[in-house]
Design brief:
By secondary structure, the protein is mostly helical. The protein is 55% helix and 0% strand. It has 4 helices and no strands.
Length: 152
């Protein structure tokens, strides 16, 4: 029995495919039972002491929320900066010195809040000496400089 293709224009049509017939028995290729891992809980083994735990992945949603909180804090710190500059000018500090102290206050608060927001977003990834240390150090130096410059 050999399949022949009809000649063009002969009038015979080939559907190309047929729908499978409905079977009551399951396919032999599919497993008949579920594997053991489908019914038992998955065991999570904690890391050994002294080994570095893998950094967990941060979702885009967490990053977006953290960025929005940081931007809101920057807007608040800008108003705090303006109030601080006005307070310094009222205390008879020159406007340029008060402006410099205000910007240092803004930078200090921004760096400290950046460290805090990153630590809250993903502590295992960002709460390290390499990330948090410089942010906190620059923030504290800027705040101390703002206080000393504002005393003139």
């Amino acid at each position: 029995m050999q399949a022949t293709t009809p000649a063009p224009g002969s009038g015979q049509t080939d559907p190309g495919f047929k729908l499978p017939e409905d079977k009551a028995a399951p396919d032999e290729a599919l497993p008949k039972t579920t594997p053991d891992t489908a019914t038992h809980p998955v065991e999570v083994v904690p890391a050994e002491p002294g080994s570095l735990a893998p950094a967990t992945d941060t979702s885009n949603r967490d990053l977006a929320i953290g960025a929005a909180v940081f931007v809101v804090l920057l807007v608040v710190y800008f108003f705090v900066r303006n109030a601080y500059v006005h307070h310094m000018v009222v205390r008879r500090v020159s406007p340029s010195t008060a402006g410099s102290a205000g910007w240092l206050l803004f930078v200090g608060l921004a760096f400290l809040s950046a460290a805090a927001v990153l630590a809250i977003i993903n502590a295992s990834r960002y709460l390290t000496w390499a990330v948090t240390g410089p942010l906190v150090a620059v923030g504290l130096v800027a705040l101390v400089a703002a206080l000393f410059i504002g005393r003139r």
